[in-house]
């Protein structure tokens, strides 16, 4: 009885299947998704929960706040910007799933600020960003590959590459600690390899190099032994070129062992908020050196920081202003500049073309030049180096930003005389 | 007693029917659903591997994510270094994971209960990070796993995700058909005997340890296959793709499916894919705060897990079957 029915069903569904195959036809190409005459939809997937989320989970709120500020003042070319936020927990599988939801269900016009090299790579490949022409603005990773236009034609970096960072540190050591013994703790993977290449180019000789195994979920190595090893080699300066958990572990153990060299913290691990979430009191950071390409969040004399602070107070109520807020708003600000530059007849293609054409001269808070061109998708190209105070805030030495700039290749590191374009009136698109 | 016992032929036809239905489905639903369908097919294979291990042979694994990682890396390495065709990548993934599974199984046969759970848990924590130690495994950012574009003969509008869905569905159907046959065979009966009463099984002439190692090996092979499918859908393989939470999700999926019956496996697989989306639309409808929205999927899954364990500990399919038998 059942067998017979089942056979009938098979026959019926085979007919339906064949019919629907014949009927499927290509739909006509309309305007790009996520776009109306009065709105633009952008999407971000980022760790909002999980081990990598502290600090980073403030970024979407900061972006939203700036977009709301722009929307309240008429939007960009008459369009209001909406940001759809998804949580990927720093897991590439989830990042792809969320990016697909953003692209296929929420139908966003472009992605913004995807975080983490593995996740960003997986999204780019699996969701076929380049084949579909979907812009991925300002990916949040220092992996230099995303600046390669050939490999990732629709992606744009914002952070300087790890190699640039290492080269800048090398130059800084040369200028300030010539002849001193230098130690290094680095992540034993491509993040660290990029850095080692940069240090090699800068001619840094290390008295001791301590690699640690990375792992997005593992506790970083055996930090106690790092300190004993460091004490034995006795370097004057120690560079911590690692993620926050490793940086936190090193600083915490050094404090316990009463070991106090001159620390230089890499930009990835040197964020006071994230370190605080990893149980490192801000005071542990005091006196250490750190790098940034954006103005210091505490620097209210900077016109951008002042504007961001005001926006944060109005549109992001109750959220403490720190470098994650600055990072989120900087990305949002640049995105607005790019959308403005692409003109009223916005398309995905015209957005990419606009960044390639004018991105290097967009108004933006970065203190180093931006490197966007028709051949390169690199964003900021350098860093200033400052000192952490007792509250964990990074401040420029002598109250003045000395910005070093370089490239991801063999180019020299020079002190930049770049003059940042003035902020458009009220920080709105001009 | 069962009123109806399907023959092997009708069961095979059932799978063919299901296959035709899936082809039909892939042509009617939108691309996001097709992508999610591929993920569901991956979960079907992964959860069935746990059901085989836990439900049939009575061993616990909290570390299946690690075996998925072995399969994912195996497939990507075969593809990238030897330009192997897809079926060979998948076969390689099965063999490599099965090899690991055999090693692990040999250890596992000496352990039981919480000790085995602890061992496999350690594996899930440790194994994916090994990728960071060897350059050829690509470190934290992992390797590309590109199975290539769908064949041109399928037409220009045939999307990449539909291609993934077809491959994943076919793989899942074949492995489910094979697995349900295996579980009905002498091996399946042996495993159940060992799980229910290992001393009695031994008295009946069953080599308990060997039977356990075999179950672990086959389960690992299936997990490797699932890993290859997972890597295919995200086109890359990296340590971060196999977090501890994946292993737990699979265990959860197995419990929701009903750990003693293969028939419910699709329930667990669909649940794992659908819950985040249900949570999302639910949160949007009630206008929940961002914080609540983010934590809702975890809450729903945990809630479902508790409800399942409390009210239908053997899973929905077994429950229905028992009710019918009364």
TrEMBL record, chain A:
InterPro entries in UniProt: Leu-bd, Peripla_BP_I, TAT_signal
A Pfam short name: Peripla_BP_6
Keyword tags: Signal
Keyword Signal attributed: yes
N-terminal signal peptide: none
UniProt protein name: Unannotated protein
Residue span(s) of domain Leucine-binding protein: 39-392
Species name: freshwater metagenome
CDD domains: PBP1_ABC_ligand_binding-like
From TrEMBL, chain B:
Main localization of the protein described in the UniProt heading: membrane
Membrane spanning residue stretches: 12-29, 35-53, 84-106, 113-131, 163-183, 213-234, 246-275, 296-316
InterPro entries: ABC_transp_permease, LivM-like
Pfam families attached to this UniProt entry: BPD_transp_2 (PF02653)
MF GO annotations: branched-chain amino acid transmembrane transporter activity
Assigned keywords, A-Z: Cell membrane, Membrane, Transmembrane, Transmembrane helix
Keyword presence, Glycoprotein: no
Annotated Gene Ontology cellular component terms: plasma membrane
Subcellular location: Cell membrane
Membrane topology term: Multi-pass membrane protein
CDD domains in the cross-refs: TM_PBP1_LivM_like
Full protein name: Unannotated protein
């Amino acid at each position: 009885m059942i067998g017979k029915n089942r056979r009938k069903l098979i026959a019926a569904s085979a007919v339906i299947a064949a019919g629907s195959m014949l009927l499927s036809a290509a739909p006509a190409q309309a305007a790009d998704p996520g776009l109306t005459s009065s709105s633009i939809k952008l999407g971000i997937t980022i760790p909002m929960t999980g081990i990598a989320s502290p600090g980073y989970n403030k970024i979407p709120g900061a972006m939203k706040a700036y977009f709301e500020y722009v929307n309240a003042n008429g939007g960009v070319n008459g369009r209001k910007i909406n940001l759809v936020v998804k949580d990927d927990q720093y897991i590439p599988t989830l990042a792809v799933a969320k990016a697909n939801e953003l692209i296929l269900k929420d139908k966003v016009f472009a992605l913004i600020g995807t975080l983490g090299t593995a996740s960003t790579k997986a999204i780019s490949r699996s969701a076929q960003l380049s084949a579909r022409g979907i812009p991925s603005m300002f990916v949040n990773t220092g992996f230099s590959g995303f600046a390669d236009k050939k490999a990732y034609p629709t992606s744009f970096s914002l952070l300087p590459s790890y190699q640039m960072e290492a080269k800048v540190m090398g130059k800084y050591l040369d200028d300030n600690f010539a002849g001193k013994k230098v130690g290094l703790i680095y992540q034993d993977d491509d993040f660290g390899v990029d850095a080692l290449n940069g240090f090699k180019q800068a001619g840094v000789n290390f008295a001791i190099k301590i690699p640690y195994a990375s792992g997005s979920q593992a506790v970083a190595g055996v930090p106690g032994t790092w300190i004993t090893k460091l004490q034995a080699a006795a370097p004057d300066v120690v560079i911590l070129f690692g993620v926050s958990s490793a940086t936190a572990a090193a600083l915490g153990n050094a404090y316990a062992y009463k070991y106090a060299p001159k620390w230089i913290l890499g930009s990835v691990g040197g964020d006071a908020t994230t370190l605080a979430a990893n149980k490192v009191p801000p005071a542990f950071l005091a006196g250490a050196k750190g790098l940034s390409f954006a103005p210091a969040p505490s620097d209210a004399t900077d016109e951008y920081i002042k504007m961001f602070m005001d926006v944060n107070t109005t549109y992001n109520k109750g959220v403490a202003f720190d470098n994650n807020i600055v990072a989120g708003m900087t990305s949002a600000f640049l995105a607005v500049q790019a959308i403005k530059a692409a003109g009223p007849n916005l398309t995905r293609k015209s957005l990419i073309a606009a960044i390639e054409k004018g991105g290097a001269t967009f108004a933006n808070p970065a203190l180093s030049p931006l490197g966007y061109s028709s051949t390169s998708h690199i964003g900021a190209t350098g860093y200033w180096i400052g000192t952490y105070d007792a509250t964990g805030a990074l401040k420029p030495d002598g109250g003045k930003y000395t910005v070093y700039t370089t490239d991801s290749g063999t180019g020299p590191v020079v002190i930049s005389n770049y003059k940042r374009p003035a902020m458009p009136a009220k920080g709105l698109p001009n | 007693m069962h009123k109806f016992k399907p023959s092997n032929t009708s069961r095979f036809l059932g799978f063919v029917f299901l296959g035709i239905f899936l082809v039909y489905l892939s042509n009617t639903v939108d691309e996001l659903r097709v992508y999610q369908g591929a993920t569901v097919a991956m979960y079907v294979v992964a959860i069935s591997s746990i059901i085989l291990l836990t439900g049939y042979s009575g061993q616990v694994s909290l570390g299946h994510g690690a075996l998925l990682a072995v399969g994912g890396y195996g497939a990507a390495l075969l593809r990238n270094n030897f330009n192997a065709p897809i079926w060979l990548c998948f076969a390689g993934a099965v063999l490599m994971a099965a090899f690991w599974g055999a090693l692990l199984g040999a250890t596992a046969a000496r352990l039981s209960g919480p000790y085995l759970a602890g061992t496999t848990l350690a594996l899930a924590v440790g194994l994916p990070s090994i990728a960071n130690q060897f350059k050829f495994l690509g470190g934290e950012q992992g390797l590309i796993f590109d199975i290539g574009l769908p064949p041109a003969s399928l037409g220009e509008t045939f999307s990449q995700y539909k291609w993934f869905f077809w491959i994943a569905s076919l793989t899942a159907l074949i492995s489910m058909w094979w697995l349900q046959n295996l579980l009905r065979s002498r091996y399946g009966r042996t495993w159940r005997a060992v799980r229910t009463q290992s001393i009695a099984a031994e008295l009946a002439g069953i080599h308990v340890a060997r039977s356990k190692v075999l179950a672990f090996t086959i389960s690992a092979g299936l997990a490797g296959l699932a890993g290859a499918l997972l890597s295919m859908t995200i086109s890359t393989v990296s340590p971060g793709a196999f977090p501890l939470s994946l292993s737990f999700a699979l265990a959860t999926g197995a419990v929701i499916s009903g750990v003693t019956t293969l028939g419910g496996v699709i329930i667990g697989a669909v649940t794992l894919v659908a819950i985040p989306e249900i949570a999302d639309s639910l949160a949007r409808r009630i206008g929940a705060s961002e914080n609540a929205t983010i934590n809702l999927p975890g809450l729903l899954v945990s809630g479902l897990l508790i409800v399942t364990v409390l009210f239908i500990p053997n899973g929905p399919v077994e429950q229905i079957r028992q009710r019918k038998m009364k």
